[in-house]
Specification:
By secondary structure, this protein is of the alpha+beta class. The chain has helices spanning about 5, 10-20, 50-55, 95-110, 130-140; strands at about 30-35, 40-50, 65-75, 80-90, 120. Strands 2-1-3-4-5 form a 5-stranded mixed β-sheet, with helices on both faces.
Length: about 150
């Protein structure tokens, strides 16, 4: 396996990460994909200014990818917080060898994408729907005062 700086050598990755982290930036998400079907090198595939649904449009059923998204969560404008989500995407038709390599490489990706409240590893886009992601973020935040009488 190549060292982490080799698989993440694209300078645009670090800049996109900083853009997503920066509240004044319009960039709210990024997607990293492999340079080719046989490559272990990651490159910045896309960035966007929309929500997690827009990000999901970039994730193919036969692809492996890493994504990072800025998510606002709160009951109103006064309690709104910015949280970050790290996504390890393995489309349902992703090759078995790619999935196996990802278990090791995701640790290397986390050396660059370091700050997040929740990590989601999935092959199902339903787990990336805004309400599902917000529920995971609320659980990670602790107290949840807007769920009356419901159990997790």
């Amino acid at each position: 396996m190549p060292p982490p700086n080799d698989i993440l050598s694209d300078a645009d990755i670090a800049q996109a990460y900083e853009d997503v982290r920066y509240d004044k930036s319009e960039t709210t998400w990024l997607v990293l994909k492999y340079a080719s079907a046989t490559s272990d090198s990651l490159q910045l595939d896309k960035t966007g200014t929309g929500d997690i649904a827009e990000l999901c449009e970039s994730l193919g059923d036969d692809e492996a990818a890493y994504a990072y998204v800025r998510q606002k969560i709160g009951n109103d404008e006064y309690s709104e917080r910015t949280k970050f989500v790290f996504i390890v995407w393995q489309g349902p038709k992703t090759e078995v060898m790619r999935k196996a390599k990802m278990s090791f490489q995701s640790g290397q990706v986390k050396q660059v994408i370091r700050a997040y409240a929740v990590e989601i590893q999935t092959s199902d886009k339903k787990e990336l729907e805004a309400d599902q992601v917000n529920m995971k973020l609320r659980r990670a935040m602790g107290a949840n005062y807007d769920r009356q009488g419901s159990n997790y």
